[in-house]
Amino acid sequence: MYTNILTVALGLASVPLVASHPGEDHHAEAMKRREFLKNNVANLDHCAGKLDALGVTKRSIQRRHSRIHGIREKRGLVARDQHHEGRSYNAEVSQAAEFKSNSSCVLSPEEILGPYYVAGESIRSDITEDQTGVPVHLDISFIDVNTCQPLVDSWVDVWQANATGVYGGVVQEGFENRNDTWEETWGLTWLRGIQKTDTDGAVHFETIFPGHYEGRTLHIHVLTHPHATPLPNNTIIDERASHVGQMYFDQDLVDRVEQLAPYNTNHQPVTSNAEDEFLQGDLEAGGYPYLQYQLVGDKLEDGLLAWLNLGVNGTEDKVVDPITTYHPRPTKPANACA
């Protein structure tokens, strides 16, 4: 691993990453997640008072308010009167209340990583590249569950599937024999990126609404690195990680998005929120990992601003399992997932 880091740092080669994984065992990982939640808090309700006193909540509201109005002004969009706050619609709430949410979820230690994590991605806020879909402006905050203080100067990885349920950068389980998919995704970087949390523990990403793939409902992955150091090529390869988790969208929103192009060309089997073991385990434990959102314009295609508070144990620091390796871009391997 260290040889690969040195190669990248010196800029000697442009090397895509290859995910090494035996396949995605959704049930086994969901059971690990539930076991973790048995002995840990699942949300940030106990931190609400302190976050208010520290001014974090107020600044979060102001940040989200400024961001969505900036997007609207830049794109010449008119806001829809109706907004969404996760559990219910309410057109009469104040402007401040629109961007305040108690929804939160506590992330797990690194063991619940999943097979599609790729180390060494670029430090950038816009991870869209050439992928098409409903624009999503992510505003996510990280809070230490023990101190109720923002997690400052921590590097945050996000990654997700595209509108048709495919991950870039890996050969996805179930797609190994599809030459077209392999050629399109091997070593690519779309919908993956890294940002550093600010003084309120917040990061911002520009992405698209994810698509579904077999066995899972729609979600976005997130992972935090406690002590990472950027390389000269503006990437991070860190053998340590603190927490990993997933963020979800309300089913009514998912259903509406999936009717739009190119989402409606995705013919993989659908798993709803109610059928997803990961999400249901979080909800049963008291977490609420749904991204809250507000439409940017007067139609869904204009995109949305989505936000969520995520709890972590600030002292957690574990070695990441070696599920990724660096190689020069190869001809198609005999076994891409080995």
From TrEMBL:
Keywords from the named record: Signal
Signal peptide: 1-20
Transmembrane segments: none
Pfam families: Dioxygenase_C
Domain Intradiol ring-cleavage dioxygenases: 114-217
PANTHER family linked to this entry: INTRADIOL RING-CLEAVAGE DIOXYGENASES DOMAIN-CONTAINING PROTEIN-RELATED, PTHR34315
Name under which the protein is recorded: Intradiol ring-cleavage dioxygenases domain-containing protein
Organism: Akanthomyces muscarius
